Amino acid sequence: MRAFKAARLMCPVTVQTLGVTPASVQQLRAFPFLDKDDTIDNLAGELPLYLAAADGTTINGENIRDAADQKVRWWRGHEGQLPFWSAAVKKVLLVQPSSAAAERVFSLLNASFGHQQDHALRDYLESSVMCQYNHRHA
User: Fold this and answer.
1) Whole-model pTM?
2) Which residues, in sequence order, are CB contacts of 93 under 8 Å at separation 6+?
3) Residue of 37, 46, 33 lying closest to 86 (CA atoms)
4) Which residue of 35, 43, 53, 92 shows the fewest CB atoms closer than 10 Å?
């Protein structure tokens, strides 16, 4: 969830209302591929240029797809001026939200415990799920 909250920094419209500071850029460490001191330093250094370029930017898409396309075009148009932010945006756009991991855990729980075990000890549940998960990925 932290990663998707941090991703708001990548929107040239939203960034205008967030009150972003160089310290705010630290939020992007939620993405493992951005969690490097030099990357964060470069983004923080380029932040004033980004905020100046984004100032007054509006997106007038008729639907979500149009708005997304306009944002991508905005980043393409500012790639030369904001090389570090543009590179980071390209990587962040590749991240896809997924609930697959959580769904796997619930599936394991449902397969492992019936109605008679509703009140099983938490430690027992946790250990059992971890054993099953590790067994499937061994």
Assistant:
1) 0.69
2) 10, 72
3) 46
4) 35
